[in-house]
Amino acid sequence: MYGLKQRNLTASIMILGMLIMFTFITGCVDDEEEAVDEENLLEEEVEDISQKFGNELVGIDPGAGMMETASDVLIPEYGLDDYELIESSEPAMIAALERAVGRDEWIAVLGWTPHWKWAEMDLKFLDDPKQIYGEAEDIRALSRLGFENDFPEVKKLIDNFYINDEQLGSLMKLVEKKGDDMEAAVQWAEDNQDLINEWIPGDADGNGEEIKLLYNNWVCARAKTNLVTHILRDKMNYQVNKQMVEVGPLYQTLSDGEGDLMVHAWLPLTQANYWEEYGDRLVDHGPIYEGGKIGVVVPDYVDIDCITEMQ
């Protein structure tokens, strides 16, 4: 009898030990599976951010300085290797932005201020802690060499020509809404006649002399160029020849002396590559607008606030 009890006790102890060991192993497996599940969940969340943006960062003209900075600095510095930088144009970028906003979809674009889109859509810059695009940019007037001697009255106009964020924003918005750049510029000038009069030098008379203005197909360039054209033509008696070209050829044409003036040079960053190549044959007449900003822009409903969160 004693032997039987001893054998039963031994068997019970063995069974209990096996149960304890099984529970321990099961617990370890569960912990490992839970850790793996959490890791997979984090990976999925990371993947979801870039996927929400369609793995795209929508840009503008391929030759623009901001595009080179995005490709060479922004993307590698922030580890955005999963993103494709889309080459397009300002109108195409705006169309993509409007389409996404209309559908409440996520989109990331290279954007800037001043621009009329800020008054039309709820947008925000993503924080750029590495200051890839710097603090601020200016819009400057550039001319060919010898311009100030050939057009001293126009030089005075450009020296006086300065426009703030609210003024430029309203001009650009009017240009975009009107669909006729010159008509919009004339209306804006009529609504801001006191400001225009401050810019025009006294007793200015160009005697019908021809002056050639160069510009590219950016809304701010079209707005300011048509405004200056209106002033020169209708207020100062110049014959104005406007020519729209791409940014690169524009700088080359101006530096070759085949154009006289541009009033939309984005410096020191956006068009830095063109200034570096052609600047020694151009004259910088100073800023006509200060405080422009460049960066990654998203709709306000996108629930991230920093470029680092795009990873």
From TrEMBL:
GO terms for cellular component: ATP-binding cassette (ABC) transporter complex. It comes from the Bacteria. Keywords: Cell membrane, Membrane, Transmembrane, Transmembrane helix, Transport. GO terms for biological process: choline transport; glycine betaine transport. Residues 46-189, 210-308 form the ABC-type glycine betaine transport system substrate-binding domain. The keyword Ribosomal protein does not apply. This is Glycine/betaine ABC transporter. One of its GO terms (molecular function) is amine transmembrane transporter activity. The keyword Aminoacyl-tRNA synthetase does not apply. The chain crosses the membrane at residues 9-27.
